[in-house]
Amino acid sequence: MAAPSLTRRLIALGSSDPDRAERFLGARELDGVDTDHLLEGLASAPDPDGALLTIVRLIERRPEVRELIDAGTARSESLFRLVGASEALGDFLVRHPEHLDGLTGPVSPEPVGADPDSLRGALLRSVGADPAAPRPVATATGPEAYAALRVAYLRHLCSLAVRDLGAASPTDFLPTAAAELSDLAGAALEAALAVSRAEAARTFGREDVAAVGLAVIGMGKCGARELNYISDVDVVYVIEARDAAATPGGEQGPDPLDPARAVQIGTALATGLARAVWAPGREPALWQVDANLRPEGRDGPLVRTLESHLAYYARWAQSWEFQALLKARCIAGDRDLGARYEQAVAPLVWASAGREGFVESVQAMRRRVTDNIPAAEADRQIKLGAGGLRDVEFTVQLLQLVHGRTDESLRVRDTTSAIAALAAGGYIGRTAAAEFDSSYRYLRLLEHRLQLSRLRRTHLMPTSEDALRALARSVQGVLETSRASPEQLLEAWHRTKRRVRELHEQIFYRPLLNTVAHLSLAEARLTPEAAEARLAALGYRDPQGAMRHIEALTAGVSRRAALQRQLLPVLLGWIAEGADPDAGLLAFRRVSEALGTTHWYLGLLRDSSAAAERLSHVLADSRLIADLLEVSPESVKWLGDDQDLVPLTLEAQWQEIQSKLSRHEEPSAAMRLVRLIRRREILRIALADSSGVLDTESVGRALSDVDQAAVLGALRVAEGQAEAADGGLLTHVLVVAMGRQGGREIGYGSDADVMYVHRALPGARPEDAQRQALAIVTSLSALLTQPLKPPVLAERVLALDADLRPEGKNGPLVRSFDSFAEYYRRWALTWEAQALLRARPMAGDAALAADFMALVDTVRYPEELGPDEVREIRRIKARVEAERLPRGADPSRHVKLGRGGLSDVEWLVQLIQLKHAARHPELRTTGTMEALSAATDLGLIAPHEAELLGEAWRLASRIRSANVAWSGRASDLVPTKRRDLEAVARWCGYLPDQATAFEQHYLNVTRRARQVFERRFYGVGE
């Protein structure tokens, strides 16, 4: 088989211009070079074409490079990787081939970082300064010193780049590389300061210059030891003047240095330092020294004393300045002065989150950064854009500043260590932290590789195909492919950006942050003394009992206890906003203990935008929900997403019930599952109700669907039992919903008013069919009223009430269809016609349901309602008010039978239906509000009257449900006890301390509704 052509080999190793590369291979400089070894080396270069050009230029300067190549990649791999990744460092080696000596040999897959002291010593020696001197002074100055410093810097940069490019996992090595870049920058500034001291001595004198201490404080990435290959080095300068005549032994002379002169010298030292690394010269500038983060920015003095710094931060500093100081570290100059600066500003940094509006200001700053990105760069930004490095950094720093006030483990400077600390402390979930960390490292790696190419400050993804290909090859180990393409690179980058943005928005705008930031330091620490005092102030009636709950939740060193210590200072305030904080905290403890070490629970409360506050409120405001959550604690997860609170449809519930029944033939086991589904869905509806996801009418419909689904399941089981007992099914049974269940407007724990109808199957004897139907309905009721274990005190079983059947309690429990037809034809009374207005099929045979509803339509929608029937309805209504209102009950506070309550509205609407539904099908509905709306549209009642009646009915319904939700007990009275009234008012949407306003509103609305009722129902005032 013929060997592949040179062109094909060049294409295979990644050349973007194989024809040009082939011409270079024919250059005279490469005469005698082993082509196979050369191509093998180029294959390891991210940019083979650029590497080949640099190799030719190097051989021209140093012919012995041919021998290095001929020795194979075991010796030349480092060189090829470097010149193929960095054109700028290749140019450096062409200018200074004497530094090739450090680039021979294979790369190390597990590199280590250089020692900071060795870097400092090497760069100081490059300018002739003694590294052991307290304040080193260079012997070289001017352009010669600048060039020597820069050459020494770039030599070490080459060494680092080789180790970085050869690492088996460059993302694992990235923190080490960034730390070494920071240490190298600090060493360069130390050497630059030594040069500046020598230059300043010519102007100010050696003694005066020696008397001025200058500490260079690194900010930003350099301060955090996470610097890029090329980046501005942000600094702040601190000076300190000592006596000019101080002797080397420390004895003080008589004349202190004038402060103004000390500032003048310090300014000259700082200016000279920047000039040494940034001024134009025969060697390229390294990077810009940026002092704009100093107090007052560009308008402030370049250097200040420590006292001046602290005075500024105490009086004038803005929130962003403390965020910047988070990473402050002495990187060069007077180390003792720098350490004192760090110690002095640290308390200011960690107290800054308590400033008014701190969290919002940090969030606003991040938005401004994004908004100010030029439109042409927005989609190419690796650093500043959405999903970029800044999203990670701002998120991490905000969490550090808010929680670092009380948790010293978070007081670290670099981002990767901070992410690890936040995860260890439970402030970020483990999965989110791992994703944040890997995404941050990947984005930083892209930034590093781009900057390494030409040693230019850039954060933009390239657009050219060749540049993208070279970048993809330089990170292909991270992309988990041996031949990374530009398309794969961009896909991975966009995927990373999307995930970073999701995590940023989830965590950075977490409401818990703002609340924690506003806590006092004592409150945030949750010490026993501070906690007990705060509990009493918040309104806990038993602070000592509450402390016992807190201690039980936060004891120990587990991650769970750490998360509870983080959450409770905030949750205690939210729980205290409820009607019964003590019961709420006890319920929170029980729910927390029931969930144990469940991984998602405390993470949900920490991360969710709604769950923590919602849970706190419902536990303190609802005995019903608290009791249900104790036996179904996993339902807490619904609070984090409104979609999870949307009630299941009747069809979805019935499908789930059928699936359960198909797998459990034993009736008690099957019904237990049905009742568990009912309990679960009632809890879902109550949580949705308390969270404002459902309105009053939606709650009624949802609860009615839950009960209907349970009846459907119970009927299926009861029919199965009857079929097994009798050897077959003899009759079809229909359960007809009546009353509020028929109108789909029930409340929590309502009984279900029903009637039972059956129709014998062909061939079955009527008496046998009647016996089986009775057995089915008796079993149906028993199945539904069996309590669940463990019991829930506030939960009520579903009781079926058949008192609205023909002849009431004196009539048979279940009748045949024909018996119903005969009864209604001969004996139906007006009140029965009225009751049938809300009849609707609930469970049973569909054909029987259709026939029965056709039958009752002839009764409930009479062609004409005569004066006698109207008079009878009025008489019964008056009798109900007189006889059924509980003795001693205040009619103005009874939401069902009292003035302007449910009964008034419903009886008036039903009278309208009886009068007009025969001619107006729009009125043929079982729902009170739907019928009222139809009556309004037909002009049978004035809109303002309908609006008033609707408001009274909804408010009364809401209060009825609120009584059950609050206390776990049914009550039809507006509470008179203050705490009960407050709880009901809150459930009805009123703010704390508005119970009196709520009470007055109810009394006013129902009084006016009663006036409408009396006028329309009794004809009063007409």
TrEMBL record:
Transmembrane segments: none annotated. Keywords: ATP-binding, Magnesium, Multifunctional enzyme, Nucleotide-binding, Nucleotidyltransferase, Transferase. Gene3D superfamilies: 1.20.120.1510, Beta Polymerase, domain 2, Nucleotidyltransferases domain 2. Its cofactor is Mg(2+). Residues 520-1022 are annotated as: Adenylyl transferase. Residues 77-343, 613-852 form the Glutamate-ammonia ligase adenylyltransferase repeated domain. One of its GO terms (molecular function) is [glutamine synthetase]-adenylyl-L-tyrosine phosphorylase activity. InterPro entries: GlnE, GlnE_rpt_dom, NT_sf, PII_UdlTrfase/GS_AdlTrfase. Residues 1-512 are annotated as: Adenylyl removase. Residues 364-508, 876-1015 form the PII-uridylyltransferase/Glutamine-synthetase adenylyltransferase domain. Its EC number is 2.7.7.89, 2.7.7.42. It comes from the Bacteria. It catalyses: [glutamine synthetase]-O(4)-(5'-adenylyl)-L-tyrosine + phosphate = [glutamine synthetase]-L-tyrosine + ADP; [glutamine synthetase]-L-tyrosine + ATP = [glutamine synthetase]-O(4)-(5'-adenylyl)-L-tyrosine + diphosphate. Involved in the regulation of glutamine synthetase GlnA, a key enzyme in the process to assimilate ammonia. When cellular nitrogen levels are high, the C-terminal adenylyl transferase (AT) inactivates GlnA by covalent transfer of an adenylyl group from ATP to specific tyrosine residue of GlnA, thus reducing its activity. Conversely, when nitrogen levels are low, the N-terminal adenylyl removase (AR) activates GlnA by removing the adenylyl group by phosphorolysis, increasing its activity. Belongs to the GlnE family. NCBIfam families: PRK14109.1. This is Bifunctional glutamine synthetase adenylyltransferase/adenylyl-removing enzyme. The lineage of its organism: Bacteria, Bacillati, Actinomycetota, Actinomycetes, Micrococcales.
